[in-house]
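Exam revision sheet. Question 4 asks you to relate a sequence to its structure. Input first:
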Amino acid sequence: MKIVSKIAAGSGLLVVLFLAVLGYNLAHVRRLAAMQQELSRTDMSAATISLEMTRLLNRLDDFTRKLYVLRDFAYAERIEEVRTAVEDQLARLDSLGLEGRKLEEVRSLESLWLELPLAGLSQRLLTNDVDGPSEAEGDQDDAAFLDAFREKTRTLAQQAETVGRVVQSEIAEQVAAAAVASQHASFVSGIVVVIALTLSLPIFLLTLASIRDPLNRLREGAKSVAAGEFDIDLDTSGNDEFSGVATSFNQMARRLGELDRLKQDFLSHVSHELKTPLAAMEETSRLLLDELPGPLNDKQKRLLRLNLDSSHRLASMIGKLLDLSRMEERAIAYDLHPNDLGELAREVAESFEAAAAERGVLLAFEAPKDPVVAHCDRDRVIQVVANLIDNAVKFSSAGDEVRVAVASSSGSSLGTESDTSVIEVSDSGPGIPDEHKEKIFDKFHQIGAPGTSSGGVGLGLAICRQISDEHGGRLSVADNQERGSIFRVELPAAAEAADQVVS
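Answer key, structure tokens:
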């Protein structure tokens, strides 16, 4: 599956889950809104009407009693107004479209209202029947009629209150149902969110792994190529974009490996081919300087010496190219034995005394009395020390000092359990800028110091670093306290006794 498809699938699943939660919540919100609308439209109106009818019926009872006592026509008018108002409220109740128990109670209220003897009520209470019974008997009849009327009015008021209670009860039930629905919606939403999060975590991890793992392989492969290792074979299984990138990366690494091998073969072949004519040229120059063909004047001797020096430098460059080529091909075998670094470094320093004296440079040597033993290839370590001393002398001016020091360091800084044997070569030359302190160990990297010329191709320090690494050691450079640089060679100390040291 394509990376884009994986991301789209994972994101789409999460979107569907969250849309489902959203839709469920919207449905419940609409349901709650409908319930609220129902409460507002019918039940609240019914409750309000029942309260108003209770108030009107209480006023009807009050006005009827006052009309009977005071015989005031104004109360008759008020009774008529109350009757009209009650009928209006009953009509409003009918228009609400109530159902269930609410409708039954309203119908009972309407029946009681129709049974109420309102026709002729005011006329009867305002006048006496002169042709009828005596006035006392008329009063008794009116009082009995009034009591019966007021009893029915109170029954009506109680029924109106009953309608109100029923409506309020259903309002409470709907509110409770809304609360339950809300809680249920919240619970279901929480469950869906938990499920979505539970599913999203593995989806996220799988998507992340499908992107992270190929990227890590590509990064490690790029590091290997940067380190000069071209035998890379990334996993190309699958049909996503990273598989295509891995295929192209493998092809690139193979091509770079082929180019690197061609370069090494070319350098090795050319170096070998140059050694024979160069040796013949050096031998010819020496024969001429020995005046075997005939005498030479001073100017001719000087030119031949310059030619011989150039031949030596060229031979040194070719030798370094051959060494580097063999090191990169792992074609150099190291003959490791316990060696006294103090004696080794002393011999190398003594071999440079003449060159140092010629440039006016003081060559100093320091070593402890006890042997500083390292398990190393003597010739290769001599090559490293000689290169460092040669560079130090070459970049020093007249009157400067080059110091070679050998010491033992307790405790290892190389990641091994053994102690460390150290050789330091310090000079008072121009020094090395911080940004070049690691680059100088790269192949063909040189620093152009004012007024100096190395006469090399920038391979000596690269070879020294390679030799140190092959010994499990380290070659580094730091600033000298006053001026110049200190090159430090660290090698794992040997556990052998001093009498086992190879001389």
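Marking note for examiners. Residues 3-201 form a domain with the Four Helix Bundle (Hemerythrin (Met), subunit A) fold (CATH 1.20.120).
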